[in-house]
Structures are given as C-alpha cells and as structure tokens.
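help with this.
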Amino acid sequence: MNLFQRVAGAVVGIVLFVLALVFASVILAVVAVLALALWAWLLWRTRNLPRRRTGSGGGNWQTLATLLGGSGLDLGTLQSNGNLDILI
C-alpha cells in the first residue's frame, strides 16, 4: 500500500466514525423526545386524579375506584366485608 491509500483509508474511517456518532446522537435525541412526550402525556392524563393520602389508614380507596374506572367494583361491600386489603 502506498501513502495515498493509507491516508484515504484513515480519512474514510474517520468520516464513517463521525457519521455513526451523528446517527447515534440523532437516535438518542428522538428517543429522549418520545420519552418526554410519553411522560408529559401521562402527567396530563393523571392531573385530576386524587392524591394518595400518607396518613393513618389504608389509603385513598376513591383513587382506586377512579383508576378502575367504575368496573362494577363495589367498594362499600368490600370495606364492610374486610376484603379491601387484597386489592393493594
């Protein structure tokens, strides 16, 4: 190999490395934007949910009912039977 081929090979290698670095950076930026959009969407969808209480007691069962979407779950019956603890 002569000197020209070695220099050309080094230049091509450096250019390919830089292109790979740029491609990886773009992919990382796209993934970061999608993750941020998903986080913002989840934050927006859950903005009106009641906050969970941290005091004494078993927690906020109204939040559980809201998250379950009124799927026929009778919280009053579960509380009176003492079976509410199995839902946590």
About this structure: The mean pLDDT is 77.
